[in-house]
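in:
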């Protein structure tokens, strides 16, 4: 019965993915499209309908140019050739309605719709070329409206709206220029978050999985839990919950992997002294005499040597509550990267600043309060270990997450003022004479309920713009002294909360690989995926239009529960594992281009002079033949090694498929399966 159910699910998934058109409305809005119209609009109109059980009824009773406006997060329309919809007019006439696409909300050239008397009160099919909407290849495309321009009241109906895909080319041209270096890959770009609640964290399975993925950076204790975590008692102060993992467990796991650590200290309910003691526990020597002292909550955090001695000690016969910290490890761990809080700008984050009895002054989720506290954390922590690097949380966007209590002028924009978190943070830190070593950036491609496979597979390219956005704010608000501030992305995944079936599908694995390929050419030095194990559920977005057969969501690359008889590994695990064959730390990203947006290529020149090519087929149904041209490169042989993960691997729950391809001169002809990730390793000749 289990095998029959799986087969039915796979068949259903294949049928749903058979159309690569983007469905916008088919009785309900789909693919992340949102209601933004200004008129009397019923999105569940029972009659008339073109198909299914509902259509959109639009009524302008005022004759004031009202419209149906369907909006989306910005996406590139390059994969699509036309906007298609069915419309049911109730009045005849020329140029009754105008269709206008929008770029970042601004309308482009309008396309008029006219109806003859015999077309009234009947469904009419409209197909408008993307070129006529003047949005071709523009990633700022974020919607379109159908507007009444009759200067009179009107009612019309719309149904079966979609973007029609461009047919795949007969052969895609991929070009690699090995001599065109972009940047050196930082090993920290292959990172993953660890969670304090992961009961399998210290298991051999975890060690094996991390090694298989070639992880270069690990972050702890885990997202929002960081701002409600007392490392010294291993409890949540608000819930008095004892976690299955602790600071010592994390240290042992990361030491075994020889990876870099990112430790997130408690800003929301902790103190600078508490954070400094954590630095001492990991990095100080037992002979350290630096006094940490009493914090604003009255806790005495003693000296750096006290915590280092606790780390070096053996467990006591009678546990005094600190035996979990006694791990017989005299040598410091020398963990380098420390973050002050997690997403402190967000109201979802625990933040007791200004709360009665908390001992914490200021206001919650406030950039100025955070910046002043950051100075104290920075000074206290570096007094224990002056070699550590300390990062401040910073979202993109000059006006993002501002509480409008303060604003700062941008000297490079005629002193125009902005109240967003990051401008206020940077300007305040500069005034305090504190330079963070790095900015901590988190991004999730979509919001829950609005997931779209087509959109997610474009989201990796958007990451290219995040680094310049942050760098511009550093330049504007910190000036030349900010050039030393590096950018580190310490959380990334497909959806901001309530992950549904897309998070455990092959599509999310394609997104992961594509995101890392894009990020490797930016100035982000770190990308830490959220997360290793998270736990999931089946009550989120399991829309049948989304590809995939797992009817539940989970942020993890490994399952933390009984996985219904299936392996504990999700497709993202294999995507990360596959990338161990691509560029690693110290290798060089080089220029690579594709003639087709749904076949992405990223190239790395390896330390031995060879090439490794990462190719991602984002077309859900079409295998794509490609010609790969390696400019000014002499291969060592006529054969290249290939490694592939795609639909067949996902559906059979099998590992990466190794293989080979033939190279003739400096050209490789290869067909990439639909929805697949492939790495080709080309050794250099003499």
């Amino acid at each position: 019965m289990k095998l029959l159910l799986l087969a039915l699910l796979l068949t259903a998934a294949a049928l749903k993915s058979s159309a690569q058109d983007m469905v916008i409305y088919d009785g309900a809005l789909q693919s992340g499209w949102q209601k933004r119209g200004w008129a009397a609009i019923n999105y569940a109109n029972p009659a008339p309908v073109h198909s299914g059980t509902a259509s959109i009824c639009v009524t302008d009773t005022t004759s004031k140019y009202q419209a149906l406006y369907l909006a989306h997060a910005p996406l590139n329309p390059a994969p699509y050739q036309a906007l298609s919809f069915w419309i049911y007019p109730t009045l005849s006439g020329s140029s009754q309605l105008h269709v206008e696409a929008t770029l970042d909300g601004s309308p482009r050239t309008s396309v008029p719709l006219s109806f003859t008397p015999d077309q009234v009160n009947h469904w009419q099919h409209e197909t408008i070329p993307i070129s006529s909407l003047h949005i071709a290849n523009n990633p700022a495309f974020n919607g379109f409206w159908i507007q009444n321009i009759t200067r009179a009241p009107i009612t019309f109906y719309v149904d079966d709206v979609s973007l029609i895909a461009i047919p795949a080319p007969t052969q895609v041209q991929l070009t690699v220029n090995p001599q065109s270096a972009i940047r050196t890959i930082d090993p920290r770009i292959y990172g993953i978050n660890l969670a304090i609640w992961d009961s399998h964290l210290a298991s051999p399975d975890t060690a094996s999985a991390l090694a298989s993925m070639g992880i270069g950076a690990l972050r702890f204790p885990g997202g929002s839990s960081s701002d409600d975590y007392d490392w010294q008692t291993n409890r949540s102060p608000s819930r008095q919950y004892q976690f299955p993992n602790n600071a010592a467990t994390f240290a042992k796991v990361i030491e075994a992997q020889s990876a870099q650590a990112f430790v997130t200290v408690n800003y929301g309910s902790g103190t600078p002294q508490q954070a400094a003691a954590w630095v001492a526990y990991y990095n100080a020597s037992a002979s350290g005499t630096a006094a940490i002292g009493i914090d604003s909550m009255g806790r005495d955090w003693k000296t750096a040597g006290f915590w280092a001695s606790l780390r070096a000690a053996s467990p006591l016969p009678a546990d005094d509550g600190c035996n979990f910290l006694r791990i017989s490890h005299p040598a410091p761990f020398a963990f380098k990267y420390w973050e002050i809080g997690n997403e402190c700008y967000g109201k979802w984050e625990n933040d007791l600043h200004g709360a009665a009895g908390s001992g914490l002054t200021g206001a919650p989720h406030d950039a100025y309060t955070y910046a002043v506290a950051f100075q104290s954390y920075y000074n206290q922590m570096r007094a224990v270990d002056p070699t550590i690097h300390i990062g401040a949380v910073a979202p993109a966007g000059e006006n993002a997450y501002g509480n409008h209590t303060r604003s700062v002028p941008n000297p490079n924009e005629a002193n125009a003022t902005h109240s967003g978190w990051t401008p206020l943070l940077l300007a305040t830190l500069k005034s305090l004479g504190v330079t963070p070593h790095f900015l901590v950036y988190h991004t999730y491609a979509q919001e829950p309920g609005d997931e779209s496979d087509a959109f997610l597979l474009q989201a990796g390219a958007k990451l290219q713009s995040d680094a310049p956005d942050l760098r511009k704010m550093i330049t504007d608000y910190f000036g030349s002294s900010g050039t030393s501030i590096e950018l580190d992305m310490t959380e990334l995944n497909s959806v901001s909360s309530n992950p549904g079936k897309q998070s455990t599908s092959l599509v999310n694995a394609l997104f992961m690989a594509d995101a890392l390929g894009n990020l490797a050419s930016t100035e982000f030095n770190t990308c830490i995926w959220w997360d290793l194990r998270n736990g999931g559920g089946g009550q989120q977005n399991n829309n049948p239009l989304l590809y995939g057969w797992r009817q539940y969501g989970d942020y993890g690359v490994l399952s933390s529960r009984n996985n219904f008889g299936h392996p504990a590994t999700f497709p993202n695990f294999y995507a990360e594992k596959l990338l161990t064959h691509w560029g690693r730390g110290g290798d060089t990203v080089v220029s690579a281009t594709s003639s087709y947006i749904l076949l992405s290529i990223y190239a790395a020149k390896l330390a031995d002079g060879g090439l490794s090519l990462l190719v991602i087929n984002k077309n859900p149904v079409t295998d794509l033949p490609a010609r790969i041209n390696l400019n000014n490169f002499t291969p060592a042989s006529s054969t290249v090694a290939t490694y592939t993960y795609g639909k067949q691997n996902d559906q059979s729950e099998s590992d990466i498929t190794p293989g080979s391809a033939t190279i003739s001169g400096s050209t490789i002809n290869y067909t990439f399966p639909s929805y697949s990730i492939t790495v080709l390793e080309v050794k250099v000749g003499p």
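note: The chain has twelve helices and 35 strands.
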